[in-house]
Amino acid sequence: MKSAISMVSDFIHRMTRPAAEKKSEKRFFAEDLPKSVKYFVQRNFPGRSIAFVHKKSSLKGALFVVILNDGILIEFKENGNWEKIDCKMGAVPATMVPCNVATFMKDYYPRVPIVKIEKTDNGYETTLSNFVSLKFNMTENVA
User: Fold this and answer.
1) What are phi and psi of 114, to 5 degrees?
2) Contact 72, 89 (CB under 8 A)
3) Cβ atoms 65, 57 nearer than 8 A
4) pTM of full prediction above 0.85
């Protein structure tokens, strides 16, 4: 009888776990992040602190999802390289924008900041504050 109750309890626990646990996501603390990630945040987002961190596993490997205290979301690979920066309605730091992308933006969208940039298999994908999405290939030219 005791084992049946234990099995039912275990089943209920598994079915009611938070969705994050079911998706191979794990909450981390800022202290547990690689030093390169912490340094990246300090250098590129001065005056902001890390509010929330979790690690999620995918087919491409693990990603650290870091949310700063003002809502900026940054995704990092396990090696500490950034994959995605989403500044919501603020501008992505200029140091994160590749040279040819920055030149294109200066020529064609001089007063419209990039609010989101993401590395893709073929280059970069950006979203501007006016909701225009632009894709750039590996040579940083508009695709």
Assistant:
1) -80, 125
2) no
3) no
4) no
